[in-house]
Design goal:
The protein is of the alpha/beta class and 323 residues long. It has 12 helices and 11 strands. α2 crosses α10, α2 packs antiparallel against α11 and α4 packs across α12. It is globular, with a radius of gyration of 21 Å.
């Protein structure tokens, strides 16, 4: 038997196997929704509101499995290396694209090994300050001067390569200004230091900052979304504060291994769209200054490719290196 015939037979067998998987899905289970972040966080809370409704729609148990690690890499790797059968799904945020730009070597390739299912929505980020900080608007913040450098623009974030860090670096590139970045291991410690006055400014997720803004312990300067948040309608966007087109919210989405059959992806996507109608899911997302999108697999894959290019440029231009 020639090598060509063997290759053809292998291809036919693979197609037949994929068809069988697609035909039976999701009759065996459970389906694992892998979250690369700790239990109790905002991402985990949204996943745990989605999994229940997904299970009802698919008539199959959907379990949330937390695999916390820096940038969610451990959880993403687990999904990338799992069987492409729709039973292991990554529940991820835009660190999914940031990691590909930030880390020279990942245990997987974001675009080669994974494909998108649903762009679920986006979560707001905010530039905020201690009440005694000099600047109360973005333009005031950008005009701060120091004798030798830009040390008055000291800005906390949730870690090197975090969405807040990249959002601030992108603003630097557009404004032609330099900030002094103070990375923390998570947004929580950074917020504590800004509340205490040790650091004057912070760019982080709106969900963590909003309670302190409402209590008058922090002042909101601007939000990173394309439009104002319904939770803080009085707070302008960075886009309307002099940088049209600026949009650096944190998106949330689901992914599966690249070889997962189209029919399985389609079924998962349609079930997710239905689950997004759940009042609980909507409430969990909106509580984090977020909005539901429900984008298609093709839209999500295009977004990931676009963001990898954008983040790669930011990482290169500012010499950002993973810790």
């Amino acid at each position: 038997m020639t090598r060509t015939i063997l290759i053809c037979l292998a291809a036919v067998a693979a197609l037949a196997g994929s068809a069988a998987v697609a035909q039976e899905y999701p009759t065996r289970g459970p389906i694992r929704l892998v979250v690369g972040f700790a239990t109790g966080g905002g991402t985990d809370a949204i996943a745990r509101s989605l999994n229940v409704r997904l299970g009802e729609i698919l008539k199959q148990t959907v379990l949330v499995e937390n695999r916390p690690s820096s940038g969610g890499i451990l959880g993403t790797e687990a999904v990338a290396k799992s069987a492409p059968d729709g039973y292991t799904v990554s529940f991820n945020v835009n660190t999914h694209a940031i990691n590909q730009a930030l880390y020279p070597k990942l245990p997987y390739d974001t675009e080669r090994d994974l494909r998108g299912v649903t762009l679920i929505g986006s979560l707001g980020q905010m530039l905020a300050a201690h009440p005694n900080a000099q600047a109360g608007t973005l333009q005031q913040f950008l005009k701060l001067e120091a004798p030798n450098d830009d040390k008055k623009r000291i800005l906390a974030n949730g870690g090197v390569g975090s969405p807040g860090h990249l959002a601030a670096a992108y603003l630097e590139s557009l404004a032609g200004a330099r900030f002094t970045h103070v990375p923390y291991r998570g947004a929580g410690p950074g917020i504590i230091d800004v509340l205490g006055g040790q650091v004057p400014y912070i760019l982080s997720t709106s969900a963590g900052l909003l309670p302190h803004v409402r209590a008058g312990k922090l002042k909101a300067i601007a939000v990173t979304s394309a439009e104002r948040s319904s939770l803080t309608p009085q707070v302008p966007t960075i886009a309307e504060s002099g940088f049209p087109g600026y949009d650096m919210d944190t998106w949330i989405a689901t992914f599966v291994p690249k070889a997962t059959p189209n029919s399985v992806v389609k079924l998962l996507h349609e079930a997710t769209l239905e689950a997004l109608k759940s009042p609980l899911v909507k409430e969990r997302i909106e509580a984090q200054a977020g909005r539901i999108i429900g984008g298609s697999p093709a839209q999500l894959d295009a977004l990931v490719a676009e963001d990898i290019k954008r983040y790669t440029k930011i990482v290169k231009d500012f010499g950002i290196k993973a810790e």
